[in-house]
């Protein structure tokens, strides 16, 4: 009892948490919709959405109800048994995508780990033990496990941990010739984000995705779409691949899938899934009844015309208000991403200063993100109101003014 503290302060983080994060100086304690309150009762407008996780805002009543009801029924049974919420959510995913089979895990990294293992196993079982090459792209991000962080195209995250998994090649994004130069009969998979999240919110061109799909077919390689961040309504369709008309062999989902409750999924076809068998892969918590019950509710709300049709309208409003700020301060050179996965590229005088804008924004009670050091990222709730967007952007404008005036 002597170690317990009635009042938790931000300084405690620096004493007891592994120093791999640098969180803001305030501590959020309550959220409702797109508003958050800290320990002092100060209100913030949330344009970060838990890094595209809180797709329905904080404490959505339907999600709260689903969690409360399931919490009184069944919490956990492991993969030794199945459960109703997991089967219901899997059926929703199968019914609304290209997929026939679903594997549940807990995070985007785990879903991508499963996808990469499946791709290699499929190639080895169907072709030969040397068909293991994975092609990925610079500035990509696929998770923090050692395998996924090595597949990701940002060395700053993967260096410093010893020898990396072999047979992984990185080439420039949206460069089909670069893919042609490295793909061959030893390639088992090409993995990409239709919209790169952490890498600066670069969208794949239609020509690039079509070309990669054709190359994968030519060389019997699987095409993996990482839609951990850009999926589940974020860009205006249930999954972003549906806007391109290019169907992957494997798709990964997480973040918004649980509306804030940890859950992820890997989706694939019957033919590819058929190489797996009991014991070849697994997870203790994947398909947890609590997570899947919340996931079912989140899925039904997100996959509605009311929510999906409103995303481009909200994006347009964000850009109009950002451009109003830009006309006064000239800090943005372009707007990137799709839907409410929105990036604002900083102009030359402000290159490398994205974190400065984030920190100043919190002083004016608005929460946002960066995507690299020179892109501001907005991933708010998909159901954020027009009033909340306007009010949050008014606060952000004051933060921008403070930086520009004091430069």
Automatic annotation (TrEMBL):
Q: For this UniProt record, give its keywords in alphabetical order, as a comma-separated list.
A: Amino-acid biosynthesis, Aminotransferase, Arginine biosynthesis, Cytoplasm, Lysine biosynthesis, Pyridoxal phosphate, Transferase
InterPro entries, alphabetically? Ac/SucOrn_transaminase_bac (IPR017652), AcOrn/SuccOrn_fam (IPR004636), Aminotrans_3 (IPR005814), Aminotrans_3_PPA_site (IPR049704), Class-III_PLP-dep_AT (IPR050103), PyrdxlP-dep_Trfase (IPR015424), PyrdxlP-dep_Trfase_major (IPR015421), PyrdxlP-dep_Trfase_small (IPR015422)
Keyword Amino-acid biosynthesis assigned to the entry: answer is yes
Reactions listed under catalytic activity: N(2)-acetyl-L-ornithine + 2-oxoglutarate = N-acetyl-L-glutamate 5-semialdehyde + L-glutamate
Extract the coiled-coil ranges from the record: none
Can you tell me which residues bind pyridoxal 5'-phosphate? 108-109, 141, 226-229, 284
Enzyme superclass (EC): transferase
Q: Where in the cell is it found?
A: Cytoplasm
| Pfam families reported for this sequence | Aminotran_3 (PF00202)
Instruction: Report a single Gene Ontology molecular function.
Output: transaminase activity
Q: How is the cofactor bound?
A: Binds 1 pyridoxal phosphate per subunit.
Q: Where does N(2)-acetyl-L-ornithine bind?
A: 144, 283
Question: Which pathway, per its entry?
Answer: Amino-acid biosynthesis; L-arginine biosynthesis; N(2)-acetyl-L-ornithine from L-glutamate: step 4/4
Q: Look up the EC number in the record and give it.
A: 2.6.1.11
Q: Does the keyword Transferase apply?
A: yes
Requisite cofactors? pyridoxal 5'-phosphate
Query: Where are residues bearing N6-(pyridoxal phosphate)lysine located in the sequence?
Result: 255
Major place of residence: cytoplasm
Q: Beyond the main fields, what else does the record say?
A: May also have succinyldiaminopimelate aminotransferase activity, thus carrying out the corresponding step in lysine biosynthesis.
How does this chain assemble? Homodimer.
Q: Which family is it part of?
A: Belongs to the class-III pyridoxal-phosphate-dependent aminotransferase family. ArgD subfamily.
**UniProt name for this protein:** Acetylornithine aminotransferase
Q: Which gene encodes it?
A: argD
